[in-house]
Write a sequence for this structure.
């Protein structure tokens, strides 16, 4: 991909910004090799629909299947590395007084790249909790093995109530974590610039964030290879985030 050229307006707004929100979706993690729900999976997991597994009802019906599938995902994440987009976003925090990463992703790649302030709207694979009482469960230090075909993994039992430990993600039919969502809305409403990176901008209620920022007068910058549900961003950068974000920072602060 040739070195992109960025408009003077975008570069000027970026340099002048005092508060930035970076809103990221599955496309950013996909560039690190993490499949999205729509990607074909391998082995056992080709037999199941992730959209069906990601519900409280699925966990209650077959906790070993769901826990095993999420442990497979956690192992996959741990074997992947942050890509240049993650690193560029972490670098951006050194150029502005205030930067918040709001991600729909359940991995820890932003943190591993060095981003300090990260909100996980859809929870995290690395924060399991009891399905009954909500008590947190410490993540095992060892790398989970990739399950063999047909293998189910019984979830551990909660130390407080004995209930099954579940993945710490937000499943379909569940509400976003209220404190995280309210903070994301508050920061979007007072930021100068919002990046929407690698997200389809159709998953609600998270897709409201760019609209909240636009209504408050912020500049909206989209970074995505494909068209999305985000209507008329001020700057629409088409291409992989791992290429465009480092180039944008180099152009703004040579």
């Amino acid at each position: 991909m040739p070195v992109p050229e960025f408009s003077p307006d975008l570069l000027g707004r970026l340099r002048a910004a005092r508060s930035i929100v970076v809103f990221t979706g599955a496309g950013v993690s996909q560039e690190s090799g993490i499949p999205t729900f729509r990607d074909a999976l391998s082995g056992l997991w080709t037999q199941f629909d992730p959209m069906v597994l990601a519900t409280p009802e699925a966990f209650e019906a077959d906790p070993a299947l769901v826990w095993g599938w999420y442990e497979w995902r956690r192992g996959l994440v741990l074997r992947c590395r942050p890509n240049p987009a993650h690193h560029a976003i972490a670098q951006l925090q050194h150029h502005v007084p205030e930067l918040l990463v709001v991600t729909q992703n359940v991995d820890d790649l932003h943190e591993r790249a060095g981003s300090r302030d990260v909100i996980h709207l859809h929870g995290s694979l690395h924060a399991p909790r009891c399905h009954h009482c909500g008590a947190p469960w410490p993540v095992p230090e060892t790398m989970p093995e990739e399950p063999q075909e047909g293998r189910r993994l019984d979830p551990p039992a909660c130390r407080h109530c004995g209930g099954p430990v579940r993945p710490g993600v937000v499943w379909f039919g569940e509400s976003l974590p209220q404190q995280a969502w309210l903070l994301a809305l508050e920061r979007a409403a007072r930021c100068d610039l919002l990046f929407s990176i690698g997200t389809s901008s159709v998953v609600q209620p998270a897709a409201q964030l760019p609209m909240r920022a636009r209504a408050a007068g912020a500049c909206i910058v989209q970074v995505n290879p494909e068209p999305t549900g985000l209507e008329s961003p001020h700057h629409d950068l088409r291409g992989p985030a791992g290429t465009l974000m480092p180039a944008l920072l180099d152009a703004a602060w040579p």
About this structure: The domain at 35-79+129-166 is CATH 3.30.1600.10 (SIR2/SIRT2 'Small Domain'). The mean pLDDT is 91. The first strand starts at residue 19 and ends at 24.
